[in-house]
Amino acid sequence: MNVAVIGGGAAGFFASISVKQHHPNARVVLFEKSTKVLSKVKVSGGGRCNVTHSCFDNNVLANNYPRGGRFLKKAFHQFGVNETIDWFGERNVVLKTEKDNRVFPITDSSQTIVDCLIQEFEKLGCILNTKSASTAIERNKDQFQLTINDQKMLFEKVIVATGGSPKKEGFEWLRKLGHKIELPVPSLFTFNMPKNSVSELMGTVAPEARVRLQGGKLESAGPVLITHWGMSGPAVLKLSAFGARELAERNYHFSILISWLAAHSEEEVRELIKSHSTSNRLAQISNFRNEQIPKRLWMYLITKVGIPLDKRWVDVSKKELNKIVNVLCNDSYDVRGKTTFKEEFVTCGGISLNEVNHQTMESKVVAGLYFSGEVLDIDGVTGGFNFQAAWTTGFIAGKLN
Ligand SMILES: Cc1cc2nc3c(=O)[nH]c(=O)nc-3n(C[C@H](O)[C@H](O)[C@H](O)COP(=O)(O)OP(=O)(O)OC[C@H]3O[C@@H](n4cnc5c(N)ncnc54)[C@H](O)[C@@H]3O)c2cc1C
Question: pTM to 2 decimals?
Fold first, then answer.
């Protein structure tokens, strides 16, 4: 059996290896358009490669994918996080789990993962062709005719693992096969707030915030990092991923409301401030201490609502107290534009999942054609979820069921 794999990234390598594991006699040829393979793996996770996420409940795991979660939930049963850890372990790659459950090679070097994939690929006898761009696939009786650098080649099965594309034109050759393409838009970006004085707090982290989109239902909780251009951190990135389409439709002009004490309701925050005020009557308002609100942020918020920092709690009026509660629970910011999160950037959109069988990754439109990785309309939040999707879909596609 002649099998072509198109795309030399994480998904393409994993799919090629899986083909040889399941069909040792198959001839597997991987076509990569550039001169280098696995280039995203190499730069991933700040050069450390966040391979997966230590989450063994497939329902919980699936919640980390703004697109494709339901599709993957069923696929994880075949190859999930446990299988990923075992797969690398069996090839002498020891993985470690960090406090936030992200999983990295113990070497802290993405090269370990690159080397492992290349060694396995070569050991199993897969063939690599770089500088080989696929521009067309045609179904030719019971075979596929691939156009690689203007040359026609025949294969019985084809696995497409060409990754995401920021422009819909990048999917045109796949659309021609009859596949519906979900419009690509960026996911995982940070919020720009030009000329907003909050940027003076750059480097400040509020560990337990909640960010809500004003005039929408989207919200996400977690740490917020204030940067010199606006806001970043897990809560912001998560909101950008789950809101990728909605925020693109708003042309990245929108307002957010931040609750800086996400663990507390507005009433609880009111009680907290009142009780602090009662027990610190003669202290200056600037002296408020709370683990969730860094001192610089507190001073900024108080100044923002127009209360002098040297005011004593006993002199704070009811109206001022309301203002404090409001800025802690509903602090409003205008977002004007986005900045791509360089640590982990993915595209939302791609091959519509309605036309792909989740048990096999085979196209429901063209028999014998399979998909794996980010070319599918699947993307996760940060934390190793995107590679897990590549391993899962690559492994299953390679079974060629
Ligand atoms: C800077 C950065 C850091 C990241 N860090 C992490 C991380 O730590 N953890 C995590 O889970 N995710 C991370 N991600 C996301 C993750 O890298 C991707 O989700 C993953 O690489 C997708 O794998 P893929 O094989 O589907 O696509 P890709 O890695 O994009 O590979 C596709 C390959 O196909 C080739 N190709 C495209 N079109 C053609 C064609 N027509 N013919 C031949 N070849 C073609 C491309 O050149 C490319 O080599 C990161 C992303 C970036 C950009």
Answer: 0.93
